[in-house]
Structure formats: C-alpha cells, structure tokens
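Table S2 (text version). Query chain:
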Amino acid sequence: MLLEEQLKIENQNLKDMLAEQRRKDKASFAMHLAMVKMKIEQPKKSHKVTVSLKSGGSYTYSYADLADVDKAIMKAIEKTAVDGKPLLTYRFEIDNGAEGVSAETVIIDAATGYEERTNRVWFKNVNVGKAQDSASLISYAKRYSLSAAFGIASEDDDDAQAQIRNQEQAIDKAGIEIIVNEYLKDKTDKSKRWIKGKHDKATAEYIMQLIGKYKLDQHLESNKNKQIEKRKERHEKRIAKELKKVAAKSEDEIIKDIVDKPKADPFENEKDDSQVTAGQQDLFNSVLGE
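Corresponding structure-token output:
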C-alpha cells in the first residue's frame, strides 16, 4: 500500500513538472513569436492576377506570392536571431485530397521545440487531375496559411482594413507587453537586446509607457510599504515606552498602587446584605463581652 501511494505521489510530481515546463515553453514561444512578428516588413504586392466573373467582366488585384511572404518572415527571423541561432522556424502540413487542398502552418520554437498550429485552411479543387493547377492551389493555400500565422497582408485590401492592420502591427501591444514584462521581471539577455534595439516611433513610445507605468507602480508600492513600516515603528515605540514606565517602578510602588488604587472590590459578588436575627445578635454580643 505504501509503495502504491509513493508511486502516485511520484506520478503527480512528474505531471506537475511537465505542466510547469510546458507553461515556460509556451511563454518562451509567445515572446519569440512577438519578437519576430514585430520585425516583419510587409512584402510588396508585386504580382497581379485578373479574375473573370461568370456574369461577365473581370477585376484585377495585386498580391505577394509565397516566396515574397517567406522572404519577409525569414528576414525577421534573421534580425531576431541570438548568437546566430533563430528563435523560430516553421513547416507546412498539406493534404491534397480528392475534392480540395488544405494547409496548416506549424510554428516551432527553435530553442525548446514547443510548437503551435494555425487553423487549417481548405480550398476546393475544381481542376482535380491537373497537376499544374493543383500545385498552384497548394501554393495559394500555403501562402494564405503562412500569412495568417505571421500577420502578413499578402493581398490587396480596402484602405480602412489595411490601415487598421498596419496600426496593429506597428503597435503590437500584446507582443510588446510580453517582452517588456520579461525584461522588467527577469532581465533576460534576449529581452534586454530587444528593448535596447531599434524600434519605430509607436513601438518605442509604448515601451516607454509600459516601463514608466511599472516604475510608478513600484514607487507607489514602496511608499505604501514605508508608511506601513513607520506606523509599525511608532506603535512599537509607544509599547516600549509603556513597558519602560512599568519596569522603572519599584516593587513597593507597584504594591502601593494596588493597595491605594484598587480597581474593584474582589469580594463584591460575595456580599451578604441580610439582617441578623435577635439570637445571632445576642451571641455576637456575648463573644465581644457586651
């Protein structure tokens, strides 16, 4: 029975250790992904395609192909490398089925092996059996999945959405907060290098805002603790002063205080106010000789 209990405890400890390690790996992955994404420069949409409509007519849009997207990501990975070693790498998982093609991007933390998968995208293949068309569709699925994984706008978009996305990339608040938090709390070399590196104006301002808020919170917390310590010190001094007064009194003075200033009658609850009888009074008088 003891052996069984011991095995249960050891198994639980092992599970806890694995869970803690996974939590650390996930945090590392999140920071590395944020660092890479913030160094990505949007690729130029140098390719054009014309789409014919069934109802007649057509429209043309520009896009960055898979090679352009991959190049933009790899440049960002090179910029964030530590001692020549990349923070991230990635691979594709492709399923070329009978009816369509699906693609999934798997991003891997190069330091820990921890990986995250994007949502799988699927496109119907209307040209099944045509190798060139299928290859083009696979390439399109890869580009779509990879662009989504790293926040790249690889196709034309309306001005409003493009502006919103560019602003979000310029100030990737969640990513910046992850790195700044590690810098402030753990002072890791990676976070230090990133903090001291070159940033665009919006990113630099948000970094300073986060650091300023942290320092203000630390200052307020420090003042709060100082006030608590001062109150504690005053209380201790007051107690010490009272004890000193008591200690300075002699034993005779303490006894005199007790005798001269009784706090209460110790036999107050034992008083008997009943009247003596005539017989008791006669006995009392005879004892006193009266």
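Notes on Table S2: The CA atoms of residues 12 and 18 lie 10 Å apart. Residues 201-248 form the longest helix (48 residues).
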